[in-house]
Structures are given as C-alpha cells and as structure tokens.
Amino acid sequence: MTRHLDQVFAALADPTRREILNMLLEDDMAVTDVAEPFTMSLAAISKHLGVLTTAGLISQDKRGRVKWCRLEPDALRAASVWMQGFGQFEPVNLDAFERFLAAELPGAPGSGTQTE
C-alpha cells in the first residue's frame, strides 16, 4: 500500500502530469492529442504517461495504430482515503490561540501585563 501511495503522489507532484490527468477527465485521448498542447517532445510526454500508468492513474491501450490513454479514477481512492485521515483535525485559529495564551499566561505577549 505504501509503495502504491508513493507512486501516486510522485506522479501527482509534476504539473505536466496533473494537467494530463485534467485533460483526461473529459474523455479518452490519443497520445498525440495529449502531447499537442505541450511544448515538449512526444518522447517526453510518453515518459510522463509511463509514470502515470505505473502509478495506475491512467491506462493505455492500442486501437489499430493509435495508442489511447484513459483516466483510472479509482486509482486515486487510496490516496484520497489516506488524505481524509487528516481531515479529523480542526484548523487552528491562531488569533484565538493567542487570546487563550494571553488570558492563561501572565506576561505572555498580548496579555497586557509584563513580568521582568
């Protein structure tokens, strides 16, 4: 499981690969169509597609002479479940925390009393 998560997050770390995934949200695409909006070689795009395929985020299949890419949304499920574990924590309100400290700790910044 950890290795799979590492592959998914490594694949998502690159903006080009995230854009490719965004493009594939619409529909399956031929590799040449995926490469079209980018200013890099087809070989470079193929490497990005290889990383996405290894991570299980996309699948590729050949239809006739054309290689097609398809988004595999279920591959993000494990990463999503892992990230949701962090949702159990409330965001920290630093202003409220500072007020709490000022009220509880005499001499703390913002408490209005200074101890020397």
TrEMBL record:
<feature type="domain" description="HTH arsR-type">
    <location>
        <begin position="1"/>
        <end position="93"/>
    </location>
</feature>
<protein>
    <submittedName>
        <fullName>Winged helix-turn-helix transcriptional regulator</fullName>
    </submittedName>
</protein>
<dbReference type="InterPro" id="IPR011991">
    <property type="entry name" value="ArsR-like_HTH"/>
</dbReference>
<dbReference type="InterPro" id="IPR036390">
    <property type="entry name" value="WH_DNA-bd_sf"/>
</dbReference>
<dbReference type="GO" id="GO:0003700">
    <property type="term" value="F:DNA-binding transcription factor activity"/>
</dbReference>
<dbReference type="InterPro" id="IPR001845">
    <property type="entry name" value="HTH_ArsR_DNA-bd_dom"/>
</dbReference>
<dbReference type="InterPro" id="IPR036388">
    <property type="entry name" value="WH-like_DNA-bd_sf"/>
</dbReference>
<dbReference type="Pfam" id="PF01022">
    <property type="entry name" value="HTH_5"/>
</dbReference>
